[in-house]
């Protein structure tokens, strides 16, 4: 026999889990609408801003002077300023203040004729202030997002960005069946520079290396600092021959612009993926293994191999590497 507690629970939720499911679906719809509202093209954003203003003005008209709608006029102002631009927020702020003032003049009475105009000016100042605060938050958020994707020392992309671009390049390679190359660049004797000349000089060396790498790759390539004195170079749609040409150009530039200022060299391990690798981690592991092979063979060289190679094994880097000594 069903207890009173069970009956009460069933009455509240005739189908078990319905309330929770509907709540989750509601939150999902709200999140999708918010995402669309802030990522939509310019014209829908403008129309939505004006629609919000129209809805607030309509409700303000229907409810009369007894109910205050001041806070609701912030909705179109805030949305336009946050999703479009500071100028759009200012325009909507002026429209909101003018709309509110017009409704106040046409539906109310004042002891002095200039009072509604004063009120409109005060509201406009308030709306403009809120719009400026939103612009400051928007710029701060954009700055934080940029810093989160940038290496703080060198100014180039960080490991997170390198992984993101590599994932997209691998997905494109799967779709187009075109090769891609991943290179791992490690400085030789960098610790000696730090120990002998100090960390500030080591930092200057790293910034110089980052600049040299960025200046000698294509616009479609990605250069990132992966950590310490290690850099990654992603070359989408690049076969072995093209990668070799690019890597030799990079090595010559490093020898010319870095090796003449500091007693360091560079060892480069590069893998050209004829077939897309299973993951970014696999791609980096293969390139890293070739780089360490170059270190073991005497440093200051490029070690390159295709993947999959003729002797690939799960615990070894790609077979058939070619080695070139960097001058």
Reported by name, the CATH topology of the largest domain is Alpha-Beta Plaits
CATH 4th-level superfamily of the largest domain: Reverse transcriptase/Diguanylate cyclase domain
Number of strands: 6
Return the average pLDDT rounded to an integer.
85
Strand content: 5-15%
The major sheet is characterized as: 6 strands, mixed
What shape does the CA trace take? elongated
* Tally of contiguous helical segments: 11
How many structural domains in the coordinates?
Answer: 2
How large, in whole angstroms, is the Cα Rg? 31 Å
| Sequence of strands across the biggest β-sheet | 2-3-1-4-5-6
Helix content: 55-70%
**Span of the ends, CA to CA:** 89 Å
Output the CATH class name of the largest domain: Alpha Beta
Low-confidence stretches: 1-22, 311-319
Could you characterize the architecture of this molecule?
It is a single chain. The protein has 327 residues and is α+β, with helices and mostly antiparallel strands. The model is unreliable at 1-22 and 311-319 (pLDDT under 50). The protein has a six-stranded mixed β-sheet, sandwiched between helices. Helix 3 packs parallel to helix 5 (86-107) and helix 5 runs antiparallel to helix 6. The chain is 60% helix and 13% strand. The protein has two domains: 40-148, no CATH class; 159-325, 2-Layer Sandwich (Alpha-Beta Plaits), CATH 3.30.70.
């Amino acid at each position: 026999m069903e207890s009173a507690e069970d009956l009460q629970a069933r009455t509240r939720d005739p189908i078990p889990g319905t309330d929770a499911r509907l709540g989750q679906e509601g939150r999902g719809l709200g999140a999708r609408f918010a995402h669309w509202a802030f990522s939509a093209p310019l014209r829908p954003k403008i129309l939505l801003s004006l629609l919000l203003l129209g809805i607030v003005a309509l409700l303000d008209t229907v409810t009369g002077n007894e109910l205050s709608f001041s806070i609701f006029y912030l909705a179109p102002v805030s949305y336009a300023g946050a999703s479009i631009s500071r100028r759009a927020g200012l325009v909507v702020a002026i429209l909101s203040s003018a709309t509110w003032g017009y409704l106040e003049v046409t539906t109310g009475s004042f002891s002095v004729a200039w009072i509604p105009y004063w009120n409109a000016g005060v509201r406009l100042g308030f709306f403009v202030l809120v719009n400026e605060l939103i612009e400051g938050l928007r710029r701060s958020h954009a700055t934080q997002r940029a810093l989160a994707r940038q290496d703080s020392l060198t100014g180039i992309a960080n490991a997170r960005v390198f992984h993101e671009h590599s994932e997209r390049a691998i997905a494109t390679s799967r779709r187009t069946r075109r090769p891609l190359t991943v290179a791992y660049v490690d400085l030789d004797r960098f610790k000696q520079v730090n120990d002998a000349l100090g960390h500030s000089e080591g930092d200057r060396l790293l910034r110089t290396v980052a600049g040299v790498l960025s200046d000698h790759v294509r616009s479609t390539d990605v250069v990132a600092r992966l950590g310490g004195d290690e850099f990654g170079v992603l070359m989408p749609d690049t076969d072995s021959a093209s990668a070799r040409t690019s890597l030799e150009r990079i090595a010559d530039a490093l020898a010319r612009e870095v090796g003449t200022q500091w007693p360091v060299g560079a060892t480069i391990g590069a893998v050209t993926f004829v077939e897309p690798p299973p993951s970014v981690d696999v791609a980096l592991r293969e390139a890293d293994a070739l780089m360490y092979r170059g270190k073991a063979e005497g440093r200051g060289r490029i070690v390159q191999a295709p993947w999959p190679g003729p002797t690939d094994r799960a615990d070894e880097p790609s077979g058939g590497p070619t080695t070139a000594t960097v001058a």
